[in-house]
Amino acid sequence: WEMEKDVYHFLQRSFNSPPVVHHLIPLIDRCRSLSEIASTRRLYINLHDDHTTDIIALDSEARLTLANSVDTPSAPDAAYFALNTWRLLGYDAKADQMVITGNSRHKSELTELLRQYIAHVDIAMPPADVLKLGVAAAKAPLELTLTAIEAEKLT
After folding, report:
1. What are the distances in angstroms from CA 50 to CA 82, 83, 102, 127?
2. Which of 12, 26, 81, 101 has the most CB atoms within 10 Å of its CB?
3. What is the pLDDT along the chain (155 residues), one digit of tens a residue?
4. Cα–Cα distance for residue pair 68/30, rounded to 1 Å
């Protein structure tokens, strides 16, 4: 992945050795922690208000199979990418699980669309530590919230 040099230099001079990681890394870590107790394959769909959808696939042992971000201006677009990924990875519509996370006005519509094809479609709750960060944190993109929670643990 690539990062703008100006942004990288700003971070380096503004903070003391900040960790710079791809935006999917905190999401992948969160999905792994949620999947460790499951014995099924899981496909995580993380929705953003800017019409971006992150798709993270984990096998039955919580190992990463796929991580991607796609542009999805509508719930049917997000459903297309989610279902196509599901099919390409050979997930089972009756046994495996799809988990919806993030903030988007399309979350309810997407969930209803996916439930027409997949038996186990669930909505993940944000981590409880979000409450410690304040009301605004609940509206922030999940990966930023997760990064803030990790930073709080280090202080």
Report:
1. 17, 21, 11, 22
2. 101
3. 566 788 777 777 777 777 777 888 888 888 888 888 878 999 999 998 888 999 999 999 999 999 999 999 999 999 999 999 999 999 999 999 999 988 778 889 999 999 999 999 998 876 656 556 666 655 656 665 666 556 555 55
4. 15
Q: Are strands 52-58 and 42-47 parallel, antiparallel or unpaired?
A: antiparallel
SS3 string of the chain? CCCCHHHHHHHHHHCCCCCCCCCHHHHHHHHHHHHCCCCCCEEEEEECCCCEEEEEEECCCCCEEEEEEEECCCHHHHHHHHHHHHHHCCCCCCCCEEEEEECCCCHHHHHHHHHCCCCEEEECCCCCCHHHHCHHHHHCCHHHHHHHHHHHHHC
89: amino acid identity, one letter: L
